[in-house]
Design brief:
- By secondary structure, the protein is of the alpha+beta class.
- It has a single domain, classed as Thiol Ester Dehydrase, Chain A (Roll).
- The protein is built from three helices and seven strands, in the order βααββββββα.
- It has a five-stranded antiparallel β-sheet. The chain has a two-stranded antiparallel ribbon with strand order 2-7.
Length: 135
């Protein structure tokens, strides 16, 4: 099931033109990913610690449709989808909230599960696989 993360644009998110800096959209999407994992009961401290398995982002892409400015309220939908037994994608949609509600950006990240020592692909750990499959 998709997860939705609500947020406000902070001054630190913006560039000299007063809109969200392009790279910060991916950082905001990663915040939403972490919140989605938390809401699924996944312990982030354990998840991001090296226990022989790591899940790096192998690919990212973003499409910027409308600017967000400081103080704008927005939401980020998080939709994971399995790609294989050891990889998944997450599609994000950033939507400005309020009377002018419109999609501001879309992003996609692709993650792969690997052994931290050998870098060989591994199957997704149980709780992560469950989260992805539920998406």
């Amino acid at each position: 099931m998709p997860f939705t993360y609500a947020r406000t644009t902070h001054f630190a998110d913006t560039d000299a033109a007063g809109v969200v800096f392009f790279a910060n959209y991916l950082a905001i999407c990663h915040e939403a990913y972490e919140e989605a994992l938390l809401s699924a009961g996944i312990d982030l401290k354990r998840f991001f610690a090296d226990h022989g398995v790591v899940v790096p982002i192998a690919k990212s892409e973003a499409e910027y449709l409308r600017p967000l400015s400081c103080g704008d309220k927005f939401s980020v939908s998080v939709k994971p989808k399995a790609l294989s037994e050891n990889s998944f994608e997450i599609r994000y949609e950033v939507t400005r909230l309020g009377p002018q509600a419109k999609c501001a950006a879309r992003a996609r990240t692709e993650h792969i599960c690997i052994d931290s020592a050998t870098r060989a692909r591994k199957t997704l750990p149980g709780p992560l696989e469950e989260w992805v499959r539920a998406g």
